[in-house]
Amino acid sequence: MSTEQNILNAVVIASNPGQDRALQNEAIEFLNTVRAGATETWPIALKLFVGDDSASRTKQNVHVRLFALQVLDELLDNRQEELVNAGRTQETYVTLQSTLGAYITEEYVSGSAEAHAPFIRNKFSHTLALLFLCTYPDQWPTFFTSISPLLHASPGSPSPALNPHVTTFFLRLLLEISGEIHDQTIKSARSFVASRHARDTSIRDAIRAKDAVGVNAEVLRIIEEAVTLLEAVRAGGAPLSESLGQTQLVELVELATRAFASYVPWVDINLTVTPATINLLFKLLSDPAVPIRMATSGALLRIIQKGLKEPSDKLQLFRVLSLGQVLEMLEQKTRITGSKDETDDEEVSYRESLGKLTSGLGLELIKLCDEQSGPPPAVLTGAEELLQQLLPIMLRFLADDYDDISSSVFPMLSQIFVVYKRAKKNSPQTHLTAPKRNFLMQTLEILLQKMRWNPDDDPDELDEDDRAAFETLRSDLRLFLDSISAIDEELVASAIKTLAMNTLTRADDSVGWADAELSVYLVYLYGEFQKGDRSKGRAAFVTPPEEIVKDKRKTANWESYPLTPHGEMLDALMQSRISAYPHNAVAIQYFETVGRYGDFFKVRKQYVGGVLTTLIDARGIHHPKESVRRRVFYIFYKFIKDCKLEIPIEHVTTIIDSMRDILVVRAELPEPESSEQDLLNEALGSAGFFDSQLYLFESVGTLVSLLGKEPEKQAAVLESVTNPLLSSLQQSIQTPINGPQDILPILQAHHVIRALGSVAKGFPEASQSTDQGSVPAWILVLKQVAEAIIFSLERMNQHRAIRDASRFAFARIIASTGSNITQYIPMLMNHLIRQSQPVELVDFLSFLSFTIHKLQNEIFNVLDELVSPLSTHIFELLARPVEGTDDRLQHNDTKKAYLDFVTHIMNDRMHAVFVSERNKEQLPNLVQSIASIAEDLSDPSSSRIALTFLAKSTVAFAQAPDAPGASAPSVQLDVVPGYQAFIYERLVPLAFGIPASPSFNIKDGQSLSATMEIGVLLKQIYQARGQEAIKYLAEVYLPSTNWPPNLAAEFVTKLAELDSKQFRKYFADVVRSSGAS
């Protein structure tokens, strides 16, 4: 079978979605091979595209022809060097020129221009543009002049009218060529290649020198002729042909205008800006067809953005165009007054394009006004005058109801603020002139109103994209408020407060929901514009006397101090009835605000009860809409956490009682989409309602903890929360699991265990909540919870979900109960590790590190049994071959978690576990393995932690009684025989060997961090061994590595005299200097 036939067959298979996947992949691989071999396969591709005649092209599979163009594109765009090396450049290009030239004549001049497959026209124009780039000007100097006669060639027509097919093709070709040789968006999307850059520059120069005049004349002639024909048709005249009707003529004028705009930036401005072109463009700017107006607006934008050497020439261009006057007239003319449902989207897009033109002109004028570039005084004055004329127009676009129109002038507004802030920095006393302040006030009023929701919209009914678009707009507007605040902070604060207070003080039925929501949002936003101490803690909301601020913060009566402006706003918010406003958006913003400013309620405690009421009723955590409930769960948790000391104790049980109906755990499985789907993993991996519900359980724990003065009641209330959960857990354990499909009991048990852990988390840390006397009753309740979890783990520990949940819960129970829970740790560790998978090791080690830190010597015996077998297991895993990216990530995560674990043992002064009777034989292997990790520069993060461990080990295992480190009160001596030799034979060479490695680069941040840790290691060696280490380095090691005597003497002196922080910096300097030399 021929290659041609193979291509035909492969394209059919590859483009058929119902085809066998393996066969389809084989076909795609074959086509990729054909494309990659374009220097050999292009003749076949050319034949498949062109065919024998128009009829054969029509019959040919369009996917085949598109693939053929892909092969030609590959040849012309990426395989030129191969053609040159093969010596076939000339003949290849000649063949392509002649064949494709004949095709254009037949298909575009005389034919239907691929009417059966119009998308091929666009693709072919790109291919011909690539051929142009390969052959112009040397091999195809007549490229443009050979196309020009065809623009008016129409078979059978005696008049030289426009040929619409050739004309459209010519204009698309110009767009493709401009895009390839100048468009910065296209260029930035591909890697920079110096030869391509040089080629593009050469072609632009050649066109400017040879063909720009002719091309520009043809484009303008096309526009003028098409406009004349369009006006005649609009006046009732008959179109010249079916292909030159009103619709086609509008498309032709638009396309020609875009083609004109495409080369404006890189041809002589004297060609594109003449009295004739200006008149033509302004005429098009008022054309009835919106596409023509938009294209013209784009062309004018290109003209004003064109770079000119002399600022005076640029200013003269702006004066000639008089765009300020034109834009003022067009802004008024294009204002949209009807409802959005009745408005033409094209008119909105056109007004947006005018906004972009305004912004573009403004940006260019701002550049001319930049005093840092030193413009001539006349240019500066003239540009400022034009800019002042433009500002009111910009503000009207900014105030537009349509957000896309409003945001079209954001770039100009942003740059204005940059200039204003620079002026403030240079002239802080005189920068804010009256006109500037007036402009800022107008802008600020518009920005605040733009932050308002459209009253006709309902955020609950909008789709995610529309809601996200508005939130993004608000975020952008907030940044502009930040900029104004940086220029005049008081102006912004005053405007926000005034607008918010005006609404809050009349929060009745006359206030629309959008205004109500905005007022609350502004209270929420106000805090972001407060700087320094005014933004922190209680001082953000009241003004205490100066002596209180400094010395008596804890004992002061904060409720007696006058409110700050922000405090007054929150006070008005609390006194208003806005929390009862019957609209979700208002309620949510209210909750977001009270959740954000918990410190306010520490200075005005009388409002806490009211806020709690709104949080727990149908406006908050009992809201009928789940999405609202889930968000308020978090805000409720945050408010309880921040204001727990302000909550009246007598209200605690009432609050908890009101929550009981939503403290019920109901595990839910996702709807299955296929029989292979792992529903349990999917349910665990996606954040659902239960994940938000956990905030409630932690909040309940916090509330119960407030009942400490009534221990029996406290325990009873806690049991009333935990007992239903324990019953649910018991039921899940007892439910038979007959196969992989019976996963709901597993998920339910997982959720309940996590809920119990979250309740425990609500209690204070153990050191804050317990003393050495009798065990509080609530701890006894949590011990029952711990026992139930242990029992559940024993029954269901074959399921990873239960092991994960148990770690989660015990971490929180340990944090709250401390040593009271120690008795359960051996059983817990046994059950956790018995069936753990390698992927769980990271979480297990992290949990173990946490447990060590919290319980320390209380779990020494557990750790003593665990550390050696665990270390052996870890190093066996790390010794396995690493295959693939995921495997590498798991490998590194496990290694890092293990190093964190052993370093935690050192930090918590439990290193005696390494030298116990059970583990001391393992210590040499352990430290050798960790030393090897320290030397592995492919994982700098693990290397750094390994160095930290080794540094701590020197003092822990080799502390000489007379060395400097022995005097530290925290040092516990566990001297290990032979560790002294390990320091000198292994650690010292390691410390100097790592920076000497060819792959070590101290300029890299992680390498610098490792260098600092090596400095600490060397300092710790000195701390452990004292003068012995100094003598070894000065007389043995450094001379053996050819250190100059004077440098070695300086080094050991610094090691002895500098503290750790100073020495590691010195060591980094030594490494830098050695690398430089």
From TrEMBL:
Stored InterPro entries: ARM-like, ARM-type_fold, Exportin-1/Importin-b-like, Exportin-T_C, XPOT
- Where it mainly occurs, coarsely classed, is cytoplasm
Q: Indicate where this protein resides in the cell.
A: Cytoplasm; Nucleus
Q: GO terms for CC? A: cytoplasm; nuclear matrix; nuclear pore
Residue ranges of every copy of the Exportin-T C-terminal domain listed in the record: 382-1072
- Where along the sequence do coiled-coil regions lie? none
| Pfam families associated with the record | Exportin-T, Xpo1
Q: What keywords would UniProt list here?
A: Cytoplasm, Nucleus, RNA-binding, Transport, tRNA-binding
As for family, the record states: Belongs to the exportin family.
What is the documented function of this protein?
tRNA nucleus export receptor which facilitates tRNA translocation across the nuclear pore complex.
Protein name in the entry: Exportin-T
Species this protein is from:
Rhizoctonia solani
Taxonomy of the source species: Eukaryota, Fungi, Dikarya, Basidiomycota, Agaricomycotina
